[in-house]
Structures are given as C-alpha cells and as structure tokens.
Design a protein that fits this description.
The structure holds two protein chains of two kinds. Chain A contains ten helices and no strands. By secondary structure, chain A is mainly α. The chains are: A mainly alpha, B mainly alpha.
Amino acid sequence: MGALKAILWRDLALARQQGGGLGAAFSFILAVVVLVPLAIGPDLVLLQRLAAGMLWLSLLLAVLLTAEQIFQRDLEDGSLELMTMTTVPFELIALVKAIAHWLTVSLPLAVIAPPLGLLLNLDINQLPIFWLSIIVGSLALSLLASLGGAITAGLRRGGLLVSILVLPLYIPVLIFGVSATTMLMGAQSAVPSLLVLLAITLLCLVMVPLACAAALRAYMR
Amino acid sequence: MQKFANPTLFLNLANAVLPYLIAITAVLFTLGLYGALVTSPADYQQGETVRIMYVHVPASWIGMFAYGFMAFFSAVALIFRHPLADAAAKTAAPIGAVFCFLALATGSIWGKPMWGTWWVWDARLTSMFILMLLYLGYIAVWQAIEEPFLAAAIARIVALVGSIILPIIKFSVDWWNTLHQPASVFKMGGPAIETRMLAALLTMALAYTALFLTLHLISMRTEIAKRKLRQSRLFEIRGN
C-alpha cells in the first residue's frame, strides 16, 4: 500500500512540475468550445442540442492527446522496470498510474466542464446530470487511455496507433455519457444511461490494468 | 495440436487439405448461389431485394466469426505458447476485415431500397463498424512493430481486449430497439424464416466458411514462407 501511495505521489509531483499535459488538453477543449459556435453558427437552439456531445467529444480527444505519455517516459528511463521488482502486483501499479493520469488530466477537465457547457447554452437543468456523467466517464476515459498508452509505450511514433486502438473502445463511453444528458431533453430518465456508464467504468477499472500490465511486460522482456 | 507446431508438418497438412477445401468451396458456392438466386422464393414484403440477404448475412457472420477465431488463437498463443497460433491470428485479421467490409457494403446496398438510406447509426450497424475499426487497429499493431515477437505479444492483448465487441454485436438488436431487424435464425423456438430461404442461407453460410478457411490456409502458408525468408536472410547476414 505504501509503495502504491509513493508511486501516486511521485506521478502527481511529476505532473505538477512538468505540466503533465493538462495545459495542452485544457487549451484543446477551450479551442473546441470557442470554435464550434463559429463553425456551426450562433444558433442557440442548435447549440443547446449539440453542447453535451461537443463537450464529451472534446474531453475524449483531449484525453487521447495525453495518452502516450502515461507510461512512455517511465519505460524509457527504466523506472517502470524498477517498479516490477517490488512485491506489489504490477497490475496495481498500472492502475495507480492510470488513476494519477485521471487525477491530473481527466478529472480537472471534467470538473470545469459545466461553465464551458454554459458557454454552449447547455440547459441549466441538465447541468447536474451532465456533470455527474462526465466525472464518472472521465475515469473510464483515463483508464482506456492508459491501455492505449501501455500498448504503444515502447514505440517511437505510437500516436496514430493509440487513436486507432482506443477510439473503438471509447465509443460505448461516449454513447452512454452523452445519452445520459440527452435523455433528459426528451423528458426520459437519465438513470439507465448513467448506470450503464458506471458499469462500463467499473469494468474498465478491473480489466484495463490486467491488459496494461501484460503489454508493458512484453516491452520490458 | 502441439505436433503441428512444426511448420513443415503443418505445411504438409495444409498442402494436402487445400485442393479439397477449394473444391468444397466451389461446390458450396454453386449450390448456395443457385439456391439463393433461383430456387428460393422472393419475399412477400421485400420482393427480389431479399436476395441480398444471401450475401449479406453470411458475410457478417464470418466477419464476426473471424474475430472470434483471431481472439481464440490469440488466447491459445498466450496460454500454450503455440508457435503457429500467432500466425493463425495474424492472418485471420485481414480476411475478417474484408468480410466485415463486405457485410457493411452489402448491408448499405440493401438498406437503400429497404430503409431509404445508405447508412443509419443504429446499434447493429455502429457495432459492426466498430468491429471493422478493431480489425484495422489489430492490423496496424502488426505493421507498426517491426520485431515479430514483440508485435505478437502486443497483438494478442489487442485482439483479446477487442473481443468484448462480439457479444455486443450479437445482442445489440435485442438490447436496443433499432432499425435493423432482430435475429431470425439463431433464436429461442427455432428459426422464423421460410425453409427454402433458410436452406439457401445456410448453404451460403457454409460456402463463406469454407472460403474463409481456404483463404486462411493460403495466407498461413504465405506467412510461414515469409518467416522462413526472414530467418534465412538473418542467417545469411550472420553467416559471413
């Protein structure tokens, strides 16, 4: 437990000192929020219908942008190899690194999403459920991004591969994340979508670290 | 199975089986296409366009079957370290991707007269499209990583992670109420489809399966030849 906490603090400190990609990811989202109304016109009714989808999409792509760095640097300088030598299961270490990514990139972006939603004229009544769904979903996004990062950790130019590999896995998260908000628009309950989103997140929480650890071990052999 | 870990033994077997497999494929296609185009009746609702079913449905079955095949051999490679299992999974991917593309394309051609649109983002179509993307991702892994053993290790994981899509595709039409019709062949209480139609459809399904196996054996042969070529090149470089 102590080792895991140490790794978590180390990753958080590294992210704080080196920027961790949060700045780049945030400016990406901001760019989308500013450019969407300019691209499709300032029609408020149209914007309201698109708002949730656009924010989800921009968060998803922003997280994808930072996926490569989750494991790459640690694999290159050998710290990952040192981590395999502890008594802690390597799967848990992979999980902790994904959670560090969530805490430093996805969660802050998800937390600040509601004001951006207001910029896109998202209905104020939908805001709480939108906020809840995007916070839950952001964990799944981070976990899947860490899977993409692990699979391409040892490659020189893994960026393109990450997007091809992770995008199909992002689709269910996107579908249920957006539908939690849009269901409310048609006066339906948002609960089923939210529960499915939660289920996907929990499934990722269990399965992704296994796959991550297997991929990283292949690179370290 | 371990006996056929020896590529030469496998090649001998493949060479012996292949002519028969090709013959079976040809016969099944002749029978199936005759049944599909001539003897089976036109649908009372859809008219003659129903015949697209005989090329569309088996293509989607094989598109999914090939992914299952790929995931199965990836698991075999992971668990038993069978040396040919990786090659089996690798060579199944492009073939499966083509069948998947065929299913999407014929479905689109069928959708235009029936639904009035080439494409809708309903559950079955979307999940099939995701399957296509997964195939492409898997193929991309093999192409991006030069070192074959590393590529195999990574590709196994990618194939197994992606296999979660298969049950989603199968049950997508039951879970979501969508435009695509629900299952009418494999369901509780027997198939809900006319007998002659079912016979033609199943013959076509067998023909597609035989075609898949034929193509797969041929590309396995190619893959083994490629490996040998690589080995002998390395040997040549080291030898001097």
